[in-house]
Amino acid sequence: MKFHHVFSGLVIGLGMVACSQSSGPSVTTATSAPAAASPAPVKKQIGLVMKTLANPFFVEMEKGARQAETALGIGLTVKTAEQETSIEQQIQLVEDLIAAKVDAIVIAPGDSQRLVPTIKKAADAGIKIVNIDNRLDPEAVKQAGLQPIPFVSVDNDAGAYKAGKFLVEGVSTPTEAAILEGIRSADNARQRMEGARRAMLENKQVKVVASETANWNVDEAYSVTKAIFARHPNVKIVFASNDVMAIGALKYLQEKGKKDVKVAGYDALEEAISEIKAGHLAATVDQQAAQQGYQGVALAVKLIEGGQVPEITIIDTRLVNAAMLK
Asked: At 176, phi and psi to the nearest 5?
């Protein structure tokens, strides 16, 4: 429901025609001016704060949010940090939206704890908050004196488990595996690492010999993969907690001619899909970034209107591999 502020005005003009010297009657006329046009309804303003647009995942998330902007008739301001590790910049972006007095903020935080004090400040200013993608730490939220914040995402543990299970399927001899983690203070990074690791270790032939962070970054993933293989040259399985890191790992492996290493990513970016089709990447996980953006804005609109929303909204993931793309 939109809030309409309608103002109408009626201006009455009175005109008098003075009586003449003749014997004719004097005449009085009253003229009504047309009603003033009602002003256009004021759109509710929502700020979307994301980690970066350097990662195509967040480009897709913005597309979904823009679709919601059009469908729901709100104004959307999108703000992003330069990098996924630019937490202080993200904090400042929230401060900017508080100063702009937006009605709601939808945030995909780069860190699950450090953004909480600024989110508290926004809530204290009467701004509605919706959390998407990476969950703000519920305990930190509680300690800050905030009510639970509506959260929209996927089951990251389950999605990564699907990828890990696919990587170790059919492995029947002792095999070494490695994991490239995201930012360790991010809840979704922890869940993806745990899901993939659990799936790998269910196959008793698989040993996880390395689990290192590459901070969601392609260049760091290249360097970390290089370091892992220097210590563990027999690794045959790599799970990267996002596609950007998977691409970094693939770059190193291709340079070294290591064609017998199975790599899976997470996000289903176009580049990752292309690598699957080319036979370089084994799989990725589609977590429907656009749908997360859309649903985040939709929940924010409902909160602005005084409605109730679920505390957690889970969007389905699906494993994408070569067989699915035929």
From this structure: -95, 145
| CA 185 centroid distance within chain | 17
Residue at 98 is within a domain: yes
Nearby residues of 143 by Cβ (< 8 Å), 6 or more positions away: none
3-state secondary structure of 181: strand
d(CA 167, CA 207): 13
Residue 40 is encoded by which pair of tokens?
A: 């256009």
pLDDT digits (tens, 9 = 90+) for 239-283: 999 999 999 999 999 999 999 999 999 999 999 999 999 999 999
Residue 242 lies in a domain: yes
What does the block give as tokens for 132? 């998407």
Distances (CA, A) of 267 to 108, 117, 126, 174, 282: 15, 29, 34, 29, 13
For 33, the token pair is 């001016």
Domain count, the chain: 2
Same-domain check for residues 279 and 185: yes
The reply to whether 9 falls in a domain is no
**Domain range spanning residue 118?**
45-154+289-316
Residue 192's closest CA among 170, 211, 169?
211
Q: What's the pTM?
A: 0.81
Q: Is 313 helix (H, G, I), strand (E, B) or coil?
A: strand
**In 10 A of CB 242, how many CB atoms?**
30
